[in-house]
Amino acid sequence: MKRCLAVAMVLGVAAAGAQEHKFKKNYAQDGVYWAATWEEALAEAKARNVPIHVAVHKDN
Amino acid sequence: MESSTYTDKKYIEASRMWVNVACHNETGHEVDAMIAGKKVTVCERYWNIPCDAHSKGSSAARGKYTGITGVPCTVYADPEGKELSREVGGKSASELIKIQEKVLEKVPGDHVSVVEWNQAAKLLADADAAFEKGEWKKAVEGYTRVSKLPKKVLKEKGTAGLDKLETKGRELITEAKEKIATDKEAARKLLRKVADDFKPLACAKEAAAALKEIPADEKK
């Protein structure tokens, strides 16, 4: 059982690591710059002295 | 809003005066794409970030801003993260621009756009890299450009870089002077380098002056 679980986990990780996404041609070359993390957003807002715009969308 | 408001050219332009955080706990909109010649995996709905970023952003916002009962909801916060106001319901690009202009007025002082910020960050990164490699002319040029940018906070970063160069230049002058007794030519070479590469900094003038003070070699 343990062996089966280990194999399943390895396959799962490999599948996640190798995940391919659809390649989107002509992707927009400009857009709204979204912060990568909340901490980064806060640090940048302080440094630039600008407000933070938090856009809350879909939620379960 | 993701497919209309956030892709509106005027809205994109206005968004430069903000730090934008997307909070959306659903994932699965990722695509591979080329942005500025680089292959990236990004969320189709939030242009430059992967789904993981807006999903984590959702958890952060939910923890910080309570009472969000309906979506879409837009929370506006000051640079410290303190909520200033919020809007519930979908908004058009022009509506959001007007609301955001009013919120921006509530934050006093000089505001730095993300374009200016990124430009300065690139110049500073290049100047820092040049400094580490000992490419002094390039570092002087980079930090000088940043020190001439219009915004005070950016100017200060450029000035700090030039101060760092002044310190380095003086260290090299000291090193050169220590060599005079044993190797005048090496001392001259180093001082010439500081005098040339660190222009127009004060240390460059000091190096030029120190160069003149080295006694001439005795004739054999």
From N to C, what is the helix and strand string of chain B?
Answer: HEEEHEEHHHHHH
What is the spatial order of strands in the main beta sheet of chain B?
A: 2-3
Low-confidence stretches of chain A: 1-18
Oligomer: heterodimer
Structural shape of chain B: elongated
Q: Give Rg of chain A in angstroms.
A: 20 Å
Helical/strand content category of chain B: alpha+beta
Q: Tell me the greatest interface.
A: A-B, 36 and 68 residues
**How much is the average pLDDT of chain B?**
92
Fraction in beta strands of chain B: 5-15%
Short description, anyone?
The complex is a heterodimer of chains A (60) and B (220). By secondary structure, chain A is mainly alpha-helical.
Describe this structure in words.
The complex is a heterodimer of chains A (60) and B (220). Chain A has 60 residues and is mainly alpha-helical. Chain A contains 2 helices and 1 strand. Chain B is α+β, with helices and mostly antiparallel strands. In chain B, 54% of the residues lie in helices and 13% in strands. The interface between A and B is large, with 36 and 68 residues.
Secondary-structure map:
The complex is a heterodimer of chains A (60) and B (220).
Chain A: H1 2-17, H2 38-48, E1 52-56
Chain B: H1 9-14, E1 19-23, E2 30-35, E3 38-43, H2 51-64, E4 73-77, E5 83-88, H3 93-105, H4 114-133, H5 136-147, H6 152-179, H7 184-197, H8 202-213
Helix pairs in contact in B: 4-5, 4-6, 5-6, 6-7, 6-8, 7-8
Q: Tags for this entry?
A:
heterodimer; A: 60 residues; mainly alpha; 2 helices; 45% helix; disordered N terminus; B: 220 residues; alpha+beta; 8 helices; elongated
